[in-house]
């Protein structure tokens, strides 16, 4: 059985590494394998998460996720990486990494395993696919296949090879969903001062869409001149990008003191105002709020910086509490498409068999990884999905040729 794989990213490498004693060829447009994998997790390769469920994923078919992640679990992935020589570790958050904290470790070990089972052909860009006659044409050659596995990624990190051109080649035969960029940063209508640019705090970011709470995360929030970024923003990014595509009213509320209930925070703030009643409000808050944000917080609260503690009235107090417990930003658009980490949308999962990864529209064609309309949360879920979907497809194809 002649198996042709398009794409040597995470999904393609996992697929090839899982195969054995089969005629597998893998064609890749780049000069080496796993280019995008090297950028994963800020170069550290966060490959899965100990906190894992179908709720961590989005897909057009919400029932599509469960079978693959149960067939090849996060624990199975950790065990497999250990078996191919990768020592692993995890953080308190549940995020899992190679012990070396280097993406090269995972890329290199996967490639070494994969090339034992597959022939790699680099610098080969696909220009057409003839599903009827089972032919894939590149700029320099034509490949015949019995089974075709498409593992080309989505539309993110185009410089890595995931430029989305594959979707133009298959769109007449394969149903696609609308695609956008996720796990990225966002522009806001409200802009803070230049002084606040780059300020990082630990806070709670809550996503509110059309007035309804969707999701929240407590982690780093970074204020930029264009809007918001940081791990807490990336954690809610998939839902936020989805809401923007659907043109829904989207707000992020920042709670600088998530460890306090609103009532307890009011008591805390009252105690500061009483204790330092003769000081200016700016001086009272100097040990409470990052100095680079202080002027913006007071301006948003309509309080003059030199106003003394005993002069703060009920309206001032209410405004200040709201600014520190629920500072709102209306999200206008995605800021950084070039460095977005995952594609939201892709090959419609309603037309992929979750038990084989075979297209239900075109026989003998399989889709794995990010080219599907599956998007995992920030935190290692997308590499884990690449592995799970690849394992399902590889085991099925191996079962056909025993």
From TrEMBL:
Tell me where in this chain the RsdA/BaiN/AoA(So)-like insert domain is found.
189-342
User: What cofactor(s) does the depicted protein rely on?
Assistant: FAD
* DNA repair among keywords: no
Q: Which domain of life is it from?
A: Bacteria
- Which keywords does the record carry? FAD, Flavoprotein
Give the Pfam families listed for this entry.
Answer: HI0933_like, HI0933_like_1st
Per UniProt, residues of the RsdA/BaiN/AoA(So)-like Rossmann fold-like domain are 2-394
Q: Which InterPro entries does the record associate with it?
A: BaiN-like, BaiN-like_dom_sf, FAD/NAD-bd_sf, RsdA/BaiN/AoA(So)-like_dom, RsdA/BaiN/AoA(So)_Rossmann
Q: Which NCBIfam families match?
A: aminoacetone oxidase family FAD-binding enzyme
Protein name (database record): Flavoprotein, HI0933 family
């Amino acid at each position: 059985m002649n198996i042709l794989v398009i794409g040597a990213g995470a999904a393609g490498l996992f697929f090839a590494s899982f195969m054995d004693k089969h005629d597998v060829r893998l064609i890749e447009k780049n000069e080496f394998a796993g280019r995008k994998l090297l950028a994963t997790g800020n170069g550290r390769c966060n490959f899965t998460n100990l906190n894992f469920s179908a709720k961590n994923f989005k897909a057009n078919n919400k029932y599509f996720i469960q079978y693959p992640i149960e067939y090849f679990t996060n624990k199975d992935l950790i065990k497999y990486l250990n078996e191919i020589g990768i020592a692993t570790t995890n953080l308190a958050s549940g995020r899992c990494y190679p012990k070396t904290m280097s993406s090269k470790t995972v890329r290199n070990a996967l490639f070494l395993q994969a090339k034992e089972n597959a022939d790699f052909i680099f610098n080969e860009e696909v220009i057409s696919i003839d599903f009827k006659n089972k032919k894939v044409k590149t700029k320099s050659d034509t490949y015949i296949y019995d089974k075709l596995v498409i593992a080309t990624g989505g539309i993110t990190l185009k410089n890595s090879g995931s430029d989305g051109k594959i979707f133009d080649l298959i769109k007449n035969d394969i149903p696609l969903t609308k695609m956008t960029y996720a796990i990225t940063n966002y522009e806001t209508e409200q802009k803070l001062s230049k002084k606040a640019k780059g300020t990082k705090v630990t806070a709670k970011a809550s996503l509110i869409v059309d007035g309804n709470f969707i999701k929240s995360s407590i982690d780093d929030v970074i204020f930029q001149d264009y809007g918001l970024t940081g791990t807490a923003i990336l954690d809610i990014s998939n839902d936020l990008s989805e809401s923007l595509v659907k043109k829904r009213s989207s707000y992020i509320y920042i709670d600088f003191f998530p460890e306090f209930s609103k009532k307890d925070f009011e008591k805390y703030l009252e105690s500061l105002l009483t204790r330092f009643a003769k000081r200016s409000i700016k001086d009272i808050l100097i040990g409470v709020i990052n100095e680079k944000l202080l002027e913006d917080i007071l301006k948003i609260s309509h309080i003059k910086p030199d106003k003394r503690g005993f002069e703060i009235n009920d309206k001032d107090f209410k405004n200040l509490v709201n600014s520190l417990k629920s500072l709102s930003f209306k999200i206008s658009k995605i800021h950084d498409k070039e460095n977005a980490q995952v594609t939201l949308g892709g090959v419609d999962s309603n037309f992929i068999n979750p038990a084989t990864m075979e297209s239900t529209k075109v026989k003998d064609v399989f889709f794995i990884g990010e080219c599907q309309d599956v998007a995992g949360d920030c935190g290692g879920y997308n590499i884990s999905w690449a592995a799970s979907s690849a394992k399902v497809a590889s085991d099925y194809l191996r079962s056909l040729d025993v």
